Amino acid sequence: MAGSTYGTIFRIMTWGESHGKGVGVTIDGCPAGLPLCEEDVQTYLNRRKPGQSKFATARNEGDQVEILSGVFEGKTTGTPIAMMVRNTDQRSKDYSAIMDVYRPGHADYCFEQKYGFRDYRGGGRSSARETIARVAAGAVACKLLAHYGITVNAYVKSIGEFEIDPKRFDLSERDNNSLNMPDKVAAEETAEFLERMIAAQDSVGGVVECLVDGMPVGVGEPVFDKLDASLARAIMSIGAVKGFEIGDGFAAAKALGSQNNDEFYVDAYGKVVKKTNHAGGILGGMSDGSQIVLRAAFKPTPSIAQPQKTANNHGENVEIAIKGRHDPVVVPRAVVVVEAMTALTIVDLLLMGKNARLD
Amino acid sequence: MAGSTYGTIFRIMTWGESHGKGVGVTIDGCPAGLPLCEEDVQTYLNRRKPGQSKFATARNEGDQVEILSGVFEGKTTGTPIAMMVRNTDQRSKDYSAIMDVYRPGHADYCFEQKYGFRDYRGGGRSSARETIARVAAGAVACKLLAHYGITVNAYVKSIGEFEIDPKRFDLSERDNNSLNMPDKVAAEETAEFLERMIAAQDSVGGVVECLVDGMPVGVGEPVFDKLDASLARAIMSIGAVKGFEIGDGFAAAKALGSQNNDEFYVDAYGKVVKKTNHAGGILGGMSDGSQIVLRAAFKPTPSIAQPQKTANNHGENVEIAIKGRHDPVVVPRAVVVVEAMTALTIVDLLLMGKNARLD
Amino acid sequence: MAGSTYGTIFRIMTWGESHGKGVGVTIDGCPAGLPLCEEDVQTYLNRRKPGQSKFATARNEGDQVEILSGVFEGKTTGTPIAMMVRNTDQRSKDYSAIMDVYRPGHADYCFEQKYGFRDYRGGGRSSARETIARVAAGAVACKLLAHYGITVNAYVKSIGEFEIDPKRFDLSERDNNSLNMPDKVAAEETAEFLERMIAAQDSVGGVVECLVDGMPVGVGEPVFDKLDASLARAIMSIGAVKGFEIGDGFAAAKALGSQNNDEFYVDAYGKVVKKTNHAGGILGGMSDGSQIVLRAAFKPTPSIAQPQKTANNHGENVEIAIKGRHDPVVVPRAVVVVEAMTALTIVDLLLMGKNARLD
Amino acid sequence: MAGSTYGTIFRIMTWGESHGKGVGVTIDGCPAGLPLCEEDVQTYLNRRKPGQSKFATARNEGDQVEILSGVFEGKTTGTPIAMMVRNTDQRSKDYSAIMDVYRPGHADYCFEQKYGFRDYRGGGRSSARETIARVAAGAVACKLLAHYGITVNAYVKSIGEFEIDPKRFDLSERDNNSLNMPDKVAAEETAEFLERMIAAQDSVGGVVECLVDGMPVGVGEPVFDKLDASLARAIMSIGAVKGFEIGDGFAAAKALGSQNNDEFYVDAYGKVVKKTNHAGGILGGMSDGSQIVLRAAFKPTPSIAQPQKTANNHGENVEIAIKGRHDPVVVPRAVVVVEAMTALTIVDLLLMGKNARLD
Q: Where is the signal peptide (chains A, B, C, D) (predicted)?
């Protein structure tokens, strides 16, 4: 095992580099009987595709998914589901400018030190294309969660200093703008700011927020496989994520216990519910039945067009200007990746929980 | 597997409840030849012991560790190292006040829904005593890391609104105050604030920061087992943690790429190093050779003495006042737990990385 | 991980050496709600205890199990169940005769080469005492299987050339003789033979057979986690086992398809059953609903009193005579170990199978 | 996880059905720097291909492997190696004769009970085509073992009552006959017998033996991940295997300790070696430096042309005659599969063993 496996019950293994033949994923452990077709997966892949707006890279690849196994007569069979997306945009390029240079903010130096050499044609396994495999598997996980009445929705909460206004929050608005912000006004203001970033040959970070509704109580295992711990790993495993919060997150570190504790009460239907949700839907590492709220902080895109100082693998200090089109911000395209990783994590713990007590 | 296993190569399994016979851990995968004695472990356990100050719970248990296996003639043998701490403070108590009540901010409700019933005598597996097993295993991990020249040091960065001043930062000061703050002035001011919290029968959250020095380049696996993702899971699996950051963390979401990228350069010894460390020592999920910096946000202790409204398992709305002494803040005792989980994570990925390339 | 972990859902980790403080096991993943007490486990441990007859080693240790966690008010809580048996027979001995010698048929040489040194006081992790942990965990697995109507029974089928007669097979007879043979006559004849072995300072091998009744259809995962493959690993992991068979085993390699295929038919209750059971209850790696039949071949006890030639770790050829009492045959005490490993394997795959299809 | 994952360090996940789009495998954990090309893998795949002789099925598929990722400039990069073989022989057929019938000796009934329905077009995941993925991954494992000086060679030892004569054993002869027997005379005699089997519309079982040379001492983990236990699982996971032996296997159960113990001695070079090899190269679950010898017993091919009685999923007793060409014996094509599983197992434990002691 070397890092490309995720999950215990609903387990995936991903493969593929940005400049190889393609990227793919195999799911080992999807229950039999789930209706599934390529369109179910393609819908999710289309949401992460580059080239949808001027703020995303122009590389317009088809990214058509092919389901290779595990589905028969429109339903999953319980055997491994292999999926693949061929790389179609592999124009031969001149890599001489970057093949021996360590790009700042990238993993070039680490790859070379760890493995002895590296695929210098792009980010290799650190490329954003790697997330195609996550999203394809995540689409299946979302479909399985839907079977249990659980829905996962992420969106851009902020880009740089620009943030959505909770009073204007409208999830349906998210898909109407290329920034995936559920606030039309914020999206427009942010778009103007990003124009200035492009002009300045710079980039900026942002925050993605994700909500999970319909959770049963008790998903997540005590101690090490807590739901929040598992989500943290899942989200932090997405390239460029530098911070993770559940519920009030870092704000809870400044709160008092009397404020932060969520009061339980018995509602009109006799159900135990919480009055507030500072906990973000998780207590003791287990879902408590309320909405799960998580946030991921993404750093600015490290590839920027302005000249940067760095070193190369000949032991020289050099200056580089990274060519090609790069997103000035990564969060809009990361929204569906956050959904995918959230769904993959929840589905795995949900299935694991089926053995929590004797039936 | 139900959540009490951690690690792949250096793997631990923990057990024990707050009011059972004890807590313990078994390590399967510690290399042979490491000098180890009970004192090595006891030193770490003493750092998490309650009763060290008026801000920590008075339950003064011995918490003496016993190494049960895996060590022969003072060295690890390569076979499982079992360790146990007996619970000694098991005075029979009257649990009738809490046995059917869902304490706010606690996992009582989740445990009951998940397993059908629960050990109502304390937090069970959610008790702070569970961390004894983590710290015992972490002590061994720290000793193994030291063999490779790696050191792990955590401390309290803030409690409520009170924060250490970077200009006064002095790690050696950490062990001189019961709050484990590496800043004498901040510790004194915070202590006064905590007195007021106790008087108000309230609690408060805080932030623990952890530094790792001496890291080689390339620890961490691309994609899902990234070093930062693994650390996030490790730290978020500690009870009460609601947020995690690596390097600049959430601040990176507001930064520009031109600011956030760390410039590489060749130093006087011909070594490639970074000028800044916004990344917190990790690029592409692999250590980059600079200091690792991480932070964990802890929520306020949920057990507070003031009356709280809640529900019980008879479907009634009730009010409770949680008796007994409880820390008004959890972070001072959590410092060594953060070190333990950090060490366990790094040692596992370090050993895994030995197979990254052909020898 | 270094070999002392077993199972995925019902996962155990064992520890302990023959001459350390004790041996133990932790179970992570036993569902909540199973009635369990120490007597349940002790009953199984008593069946593997030495000193029950003149054919077993005289070391009469109490082997009293202590359940340390995971049980509350007589039922499992869903959290880890830790169990321990203290070593009580640790008289200080003179090991100078064997501490630098590689005993033939033992793992001394391998341990020393692999780990750099070894615990020379006994077999260490290769000691028969290691099986205490397996049997303790196996007792819990058997209790869980009983909840699902599944029973596991092993017995000695043969010792040397002496074999039970199928016509005299009577399982209830197994516990009436110290050889655990379900055939009184065969047990008596074999006992005489073993007297001669003791006189000759020699030992002999044997075969244990195990039957599993009450299996539902479909336990076992296709491809690598087939039920038979998992059982093979489980049984072969018991020290001294050199061969494994399911159903007709090696005899199937000489059979014709027309003989070996088990005919399906619909019985009087409308149920699909098999007329014969050459397959031993497993088809395509999954249980087929009929009785599971497996066999394990054990080599002769390697510790024999007669002088043997060997080498030591000073590079010298030497002669040794292994002192102390040793069983002339290992299979009678191995019967309960085979049951334990069979139960641990089936319970793990049974629980895993709960996610085979959508509910 | 549902059975299609194998290995811990050198981990593979396989996918694909006999009548789907293809079969494939991804390797996660192959060290970087191993020279690898498609020809390396194709050589192994060609050895399992059907249609090489009249005793193998006529389905002549190309089985051309495509390496999709993980190799750059002719060397493995340390990232996942995905490989795929497209199914090319998917003529539309009439499955009405078998789609609701449980073929004797096949897993049809188990699949249907476990998953609720099944892919009736062939064996699905139980098809012999599933082994393509094992062999492709095994080819990479063999190449990696060769780097460490380890070679793996299997051959047919017996078919029905026909067995190779040890006096005529010549491994180079193995590839000269379509039965993969390292004994020309035995191969000719067996071929005549198989002609009679075909005429009789029957099939027969056989035994494959596998030798591993060049093993270092100490590969394999004590207790559950013993080398022999791991090999047993690996080999028993191949369809149709009903028995497994290491070294003397079942014969050891009839032997005396004085015969079965292998004497150690110091050879002329000062090296500790064994005079005999009853143990088959493994002591205490670890390689002892001598040749590893294992055997697998395969049952007769269950698909036979003569009419058979069985049941269908409408609850009726029926008779079927399985059409199409089927091998009268499976062992010749299984030889390379046994090599593959042996290599995958050894390479995984070899890499795991790198952390056995401090470096």
A: none
- Among C128, C120, C132, residue whose Cα is nearest residue C45: C132
Cβ of C66 within 8 Å of Cβ of B3? The answer is no
Which candidate from C9, C20, C116 shows the least CB-CB separation from B68? C20
Spell out which residues of chain B touch residue D351, defining contact as CB-CB under 8 Å.
355
Please write the tens of the pLDDT for every residue from A237-249.
999 999 999 999 9
D130 in Cβ contact with D23 (< 8 Å): yes
Domain containing residue D310? 5-355
Q: At C204, list the tokens.
A: 């002999």
Residue C132 corresponds to which tokens in the numbers above? 């205490």
Strands (E) across C5-122 are located at 5-6, 11-16, 22-28, 65-67, 71-72, 75-76, 81-86
pLDDT the model gives residue D90:
60
Chains meeting C at 3+ CB pairs closer than 8 A? A, B, D
Per-residue pLDDT tens over the stretch A147-185: 999 999 999 999 999 999 999 999 999 999 999 999 999
Q: Please indicate if the annotation marks D325 as binding a ligand.
A: yes
Contacting residues of A for C8, CB less than 8 Å apart: 8
| Distance of alpha carbon C280 from alpha carbon C211, whole angstroms | 9
Which string of DSSP letters, residue by residue, matches C168-223?
A: G--GGGGGGSTT--S-HHHHHHHHHHHHHHHHTT--B-EEEEEEEESPPTT-S-SG
Q: Does B232 lie at the interface with A, CB-CB under 8 angstroms?
A: yes
Strand C282-283 with D282-283, pairing:
unpaired
Residue for token pair 């190889």: A20
Query: How does D70-106 read in b/e, with b if 16+ C-beta sit within 10 Å?
Result: bbbeebbbbbbbbbbbbbeeeeeeeeeebebbbbbbb
Three-class DSSP category at D148:
coil
Per-residue pLDDT of chain A (359 residues; tens, 9 = 90+): 689 999 999 999 999 998 899 999 999 999 999 999 999 999 999 998 755 555 655 445 579 999 999 999 999 999 999 999 999 866 667 777 788 999 999 999 999 999 999 988 877 898 899 999 999 999 999 999 999 999 999 999 999 999 999 999 999 999 999 999 999 999 999 999 999 999 999 999 999 999 999 999 999 999 999 999 999 999 999 999 999 999 999 999 999 999 999 999 999 999 999 999 999 999 999 999 999 999 999 999 999 999 999 999 999 999 998 877 778 999 999 999 999 999 999 999 999 999 999 98
What is the SS3 assignment for A287?
strand
The shortest C-alpha distance from A30 to chain C (Å) reads 8
CATH of the domain at C223: 3.60.150.10
% pLDDT > 90, chain C? 86
At D299, which amino acid appears? K
**CA-wise closest residue to A127 among A235, A50, A179, A242:** A50
Strand, coil or helix: what is D348?
helix
Over residues C140-192, the pLDDT tens digits come to: 999 999 999 999 999 999 999 999 999 999 999 999 999 999 999 999 999 99
Please name the residue that has the structure tokens 């959770």: A215
Which chain D positions have a beta carbon within 8 Å of B356's beta carbon? 31-32, 78
Whether the pLDDT of residue D60 is over 80: the answer is no
Is A56 in contact with A46 (CB distance < 8 Å)? no
| Amino acid, single-letter form, for residue B19 | H
ipTM for the predicted complex comes to 0.96
Size of interface A-D (CB pairs under 8 A): 160
- Count of structural domains within chain A: 1
Cβ separation B32–D358 shorter than 8 A = yes
Residue D259: burial class (beta carbons within 10 Å; 0-12, 13-18, 19+): middle
Q: Do B115 and C69 touch (CB under 8 A)?
A: no
Which residues does chain B have within 8 Å of residue D29's beta carbon, measured at their own beta carbons? 355
